[in-house]
Amino acid sequence: MLRKDFIIQNKVGLHARPAAILAQTANKFKSSIFVEKDGRKVSAKGIIGVLSLGVEMGSALSFEIEGEDEEEAMKTVSELIAGRFGDEE
């Protein structure tokens, strides 16, 4: 199992478009992918769960990934967050 913490830098946090991108990306992997904020943990594979976290700019998130492709999944999630979901340069 891999676990990594991130600070969301998108100006609008994880609104509908970046939440959808995260869910679509997570669903490409066989591993279980969970995201946690303020003690609430949801599957990153469901857009409703991700939106329910109310992630704003500066929010701290923890990702927990477990499964056969966990390393590739964590690398992809890390790149997605570092790239701000393509929202801004």
From TrEMBL:
The species this protein belongs to is Candidatus Cryosericum odellii
This entry carries the following GO cellular component terms, namely: cytoplasm
Query: Record's family?
Result: Belongs to the HPr family.
Gene3D superfamilies in the record, alphabetically?
HPr-like
UniProt keyword list: Cytoplasm, Phosphotransferase system
Q: Which domain of life is it from?
A: Bacteria
Which terms under GO biological process does the entry name? phosphoenolpyruvate-dependent sugar phosphotransferase system
The protein's matches in Pfam families, at most eight in alphabetical order, are given as: PTS-HPr
- On whether Transcription regulation is a keyword of this UniProt record, the answer is no
- Identify the SUPFAM superfamilies for this entry: HPr-like
**Protein name in the entry:** HPr family phosphocarrier protein
**HPr domain spans which residues?**
1-88
Where does it live in the cell? Cytoplasm
